[in-house]
Write a structure and sequence with these properties.
Elements: H1 8-24, E1 30-36, E2 39-45, H2 50-55, H3 59-76, H4 78-88, E3 92-99, H5 106-112, E4 115-121, H6 127-131, H7 138-172, H8 176-205
Antiparallel strand pairs: 1-2, 2-4, 3-4
Helix pairs in contact: 1-4, 3-5, 7-8
């Protein structure tokens, strides 16, 4: 596929994958990109190397790998932030990265090998700008838009599962305030997922 036909989300996904490969030597298996108002969420699936997954089978090793990736991202994310600015035309105000947290031990966290990167943009991007696929026929653009919203819906469902696990984790540890926050976030992401699915269906039928 020619680069000028890629949506912004696809370009960001490619940039995030290349960035991960360059800084760790290990490319993620897949990348999901979702924009919600001024927040850009990049999820890298299979982001950990086999050696890191092996190290993470014990709690101490898991914590070590988590801290390593947090510090590595903090010290080297400048290039990726510039790439996002180039692609979207908007500055990145803040950026952070975490390996997915789940209910139970850190072993379960790191064996999934999922990493989530969050970028707070300086301003919102319109849906038209974000889903624009550049030059091409109307049918091609609708197809791209439908595909993009399907991916958004899938990513929102992942976010729902993530927040449900977090809510259960905090509830089990007696932190009901944090559990309530994650439960609320899960509900909000669930609503977004329904909306994206409906929009994808509308583009598919047009």
């Amino acid at each position: 596929m020619d680069k000028f036909k890629l949506t912004m989300a696809q370009q960001v996904a490619q940039a995030a994958s290349a960035f991960q490969r360059q800084r760790t030597g290990h490319a993620p298996k897949s990348v999901t990109v979702v924009l919600s108002e001024d927040t850009l969420v990049v999820t890298l699936h299979g982001a950990l190397s086999p050696a890191e997954q092996a190290l993470s089978k014990i709690p101490a090793g898991a914590a070590q790998v988590q801290e390593f990736h947090r510090q590595l991202f903090a010290s080297s994310a400048g290039h990726l932030r510039q790439e996002i600015k180039r692609i979207t035309g908007v500055d990145v105000r803040e950026a952070t990265a975490e390996v997915e947290t789940t209910t139970g031990t850190l072993v379960q966290v790191f064996t999934t090998g999922t990493m989530v990167q969050v970028f707070l943009l300086a301003q919102r991007l319109s849906a038209e700008t974000w889903t624009g696929s550049g030059p091409g026929s109307v049918a091609e653009k609708k197809k791209h838009a439908a595909s993009e919203y399907h991916h958004k819906a899938a990513a929102e469902h992942e976010a729902v599962a993530y927040h449900h696990r977090q809510a259960a984790h905090y509830h089990d540890n007696g932190n009901h305030e944090e559990a309530k926050k994650h439960a609320t976030s899960a509900h909000e992401h669930s609503q977004d997922a329904v909306g994206h699915s409906k929009t994808a269906q509308q583009y598919s039928q047009k």
